[in-house]
Design brief:
By secondary structure, the protein is mainly α. The protein has helices at 2-48, 55-71, 76-99, 104-138, 142-147. The protein has one domain (14-159). It is elongated, with a radius of gyration of 21 Å.
Amino acid sequence: MIVFLVVFVALIFIYIRNVYLKEFIEVTIIYKSLCKLLNSRDLLLLKILPDIKKKKQKERILLLIDERNKKSKISYDDAIFADVELHNELKAFYNDVDKMKKNELQMEIFKKIISFENQIKNVRKKYSVAVEKYNMSLTIHPKFCVKFLHMKPLEIYGNVTKK
């Protein structure tokens, strides 16, 4: 009887964990594809940054890129906040780049950056949807998830607040 009870509890534990892990794995896959896009975009930014005259703006962007890369190793939420901060800084930067006279190479790089930005925007939306599903799945058994699986809700891009 005790063996049956232990097996039954183990099966329930495995079932619930797999349900939550499925959602978390989806979030992880989308997050990794987002990181690849961001890194590719950042490499292009590094090619065009030397042509920008505003030294403080260049330094700030480089600092925010570095900060986001460091925070991406800590947690998804920290990385998302850093990414949002960088994204806000890049809006002004793109306006400046758009106004400057560009040679053909700079124009090509800028077009690629804009293409990456559009892809990043779409992946951010997918990430937010996946996180919403994951967070909703945690509400079914919140005490179990927090205590036994050590899972916690994640931030959605649209809801990021400074910690």
